[in-house]
Amino acid sequence: MKSYFSPMLKAKSSGRSLAELLIAIGIGIIILLAITTLFFTNSQASRATDEKARLESEGRLALNLVAFHLRMAGYGQLVDADPSPDGPPRKTLFFDDTGGTVPAALFGCAGSFSDPVALTSACAGNTQPDAIAIRYFVDQFNSNSTTTTPTDCLGQVVTTAPTVVENRFFIRTNATTLKSELYCVGNGGSPTANLNAPQPIAENIIDMKIRYSLDATGGQSATTAPMDATAVVASVVPDPWSHVVSVNVCLVAQSANDGVATSPQQYRDCAGQLITATDKRLYATFSSVITLRSRASGSI
């Protein structure tokens, strides 16, 4: 007797060979790896984009804050409106009532302050990021507040007479976050022996270099090359801080998180030197030249 099998039944009872299964698994793994790689690549690119945007924002914010106060250096409302060209210089409220002057509108350090909260600024003479103190007459129209009271860079009420604000900017490591930040301390809040505690105003700022250009002739045009604060003090110009006509501020910022870049990044520091980072953060340098609108002498 002959056996008979239906072709349809034979087709239903057949299966996949081991080779076919291995090939299918291999193709699936390749597709899965491709999708995973694409996901992580896009995630890394998105993270780098976000970090770069934050870096740019923080760097420009810090630079704009310092530049704003520099443009105000030596400012004071006129108290003598004599327009005569051959008359005495018109005095401003940057002068006190007795005809003397407050400390110079600018004071800088090539390095950090020896004590940023001491009533009298002094330099530590180290290689840390530069520091600067800026003074000007402050009122409700140009202070860091929406109220009708004059305030310093931290919003503290300035009570000195005349109302001259002094804001000091410097860089230090935040003891809480362990991040390098731009700090400011002002003379508001009725300081006595020392100013109040400084506060961070911009994160991830790791360096600040400041260069000053002077006018040795008493005019309004720079006659010297940009120099650091030590060179300003050593210059032959009498009362050199009162002859500063422009200030070059340079800041270096880094991304908030490490591991953003795929390899250590290279960037130009404030001296123009090519630096290779020791980590995988993003870095950027921001700089601006600010022309002083008022002279430190308080006259125009």
Question: What does this 3D model show about the protein?
Answer:
This protein is α+β, with helices and mostly antiparallel strands and 300 residues long. The chain has one domain (48-291). 23% of the residues lie in helices and 23% in strands. The protein is built from 3 helices and 10 strands, in the order H-H-E-E-E-E-E-E-H-E-E-E-E. The strands form 3 sheets. A 5-stranded antiparallel beta sheet has the order 1-2-3-4-5, covered by helices on one side. Strands 6-7-10 form a 3-stranded antiparallel beta sheet, covered by helices on one side. It has a two-stranded antiparallel ribbon with strand order 8-9. The longest helix is centred in the first third of the chain and has 55 residues, at 18-72. The protein is elongated. The termini are far apart.
Strand percentage lies at 15-25%
Low-confidence stretches: 96-100, 296-300
| Structure annotation, total helices | 3
Number of domains: 1
Overall form: elongated
Largest beta sheet: what is the strand line-up?
1-2-3-4-5
**Largest beta sheet, briefly?**
5 strands, antiparallel
Q: Mean pLDDT across all residues, rounded?
A: 83
Estimated structural class:
alpha+beta
Distance between the termini: 126 Å
Radius of gyration: 31 Å
Helix content: 10-25%
Question: Brief overview, please?
Answer:
This protein has helices at 7-13, 18-72, 229-234; strands at 106-109, 131-137, 164-173, 180-186, 199-203, 205-214, 244-254, 266-268, 274-276, 283-291. The protein has 300 residues and is an alpha+beta fold.
